[in-house]
Amino acid sequence: MGGKIVSMKKLLFIILAIIITGSMILLGCGGNETITTTKTTTTTQTTSTTATSTTTSTATTPAAGQPVSGGTLRIIYAAAPAVLGGSIEQGPFDLFVLLGGVEKIMDYNDDQVIAPWLAESVDQDATAKTITVKLHPGIKCHDGSDFDADALMWNFQNQVERKRIGYLNQWVGMDKVDKTTVVIHYQGDYNNQLLAAWLWSPPMYSKGAWDKAVSATGDASDWARNNFSGTGPFKLKEYQRDVKLVLERFDDYWGPKPYLDTVEWIFIPDSVTASAMMQAGEADIWIGGPVNDQLHLESLGLVRQMGLGGIPCIYPNTVAETSKWKDSRLLNALEYALDKPAIAKALGQGQYTAMKMLSPKGRAGYDEAYVGHPYNPDKAKALLAEAGYPNGFNIKLTALVGAEDTCTALKQYWDAVGIITEIDIADPGRFYGGLYGMGWDDLLLTGYGEGDMLANFQNNLGDQPLTHMAAASYAIPDELLELSMESRTYPDKAGQDAIMKEITIWIAEHDFIIPLWLAPGSFVRQPWLHCDYLQQGGFTFYFSHYWIEPQK
Fold first, then answer.
1. 3-state secondary structure 357-413
2. pTM for the complete prediction?
């Protein structure tokens, strides 16, 4: 394909790291289609790839009833943001709750492929090694300033100077063509991840608001931790740290006008309280609720809505000088000790599928013939003895609040073979601070996204990951590093799928990550709310689609 790709599909967070059941789904990227958001088409080109967009490209008319204007959408979510404005200090979870107000140059459409959003068109020329971005004209930020070529270049200058985007070894610079057009120049060999790393990953903020804050105080950082100005359909109205975030309709929004007046995020980590609020009609949607609570609320007449799922995984600390987890025998013992099908059945009520490798069946990287490390406690004990721990040893398992049942199940099986497990339940601040900053002691329970598995790997675990996840506790070994760099060189899907299988089997054999089960992406909402969340992916909100039926 001459080094051209524009099709990208969803991963998460998850990054890693949010799965909808309490962790994170990060959107992924990679592919070889040309996407036009007014109508999705697939073409193969040899010299250039162009993607175009219209402002109504992803709008979806709800199947039941006609949309009405007005109302407040109340969203329950566990994790409050630590930083609101200016992505210099932000982590992925900070941005997640701001996606009604902050937008990207490209974002995911209803087909779960990346397409221009703030951009009217994106053209990547592999021969010239340029990416030309043409913005929609007349985009305003919440503070009234223009989002134009100058603002776009300012955003990227901040990202590049602070090393907040990947593949900086290929970044050369940017040129302004006119008020709405910028050309990015890059160098080096073909890389199938550049568009996601540079045009989907960074959120766009207001240069005008930042400059005003700088002129008032000399430093805008303190202002940005508690304020933001973006281009989205909703602007900041109120923020009570760790309590709620309220966004109100932005009347000068450049794109499809929203029906809702207000979006209110309510931060409640306790599932009992969250469930009670949903039952009482005190909230409209609960994102991240445990599957048992979702099924119970569904039985009471609420709606459980489904989408791409996520994979809870065990991440070992492979960086600490005294880490045991540099020994693959101990990692293999961890997996052999777990009866994953039994745990998945007990926790998921038939909704979860046990995983033998990181790629689910039907996704790139999956190998039907691969056996993996199925439940075998005797094998686990033998590996412990072989590695010098015939009597076992003590470990700590860190997890986000809400994952207590999963941790208890894992502990039961690990304790039985001599891996005596201490459960460490962390609040969102400490959990995500460890995941994206300070690291963790032994093992971390977090998530990995279903979707485009090559992009998921590159975004979270590759040689230049977008999330900067776990650098303090997680290091990619040389052999996997080489596979990672090779995987970015394939322009065709067949080549990408083949290298992804190598990567997935390597990870499985070494238990570099231990996948547990595939949990379907889902959330629960009130029947009066019409929304299409998860249709585009787990890290995309088109709040301008959502509307609420008037309550009698």
1. CCCCCCCCCCCCCCCCCCCCHHHHHHHHHHCCCCCCEEEEEEEECCCHHHHHHHHHH
2. 0.79
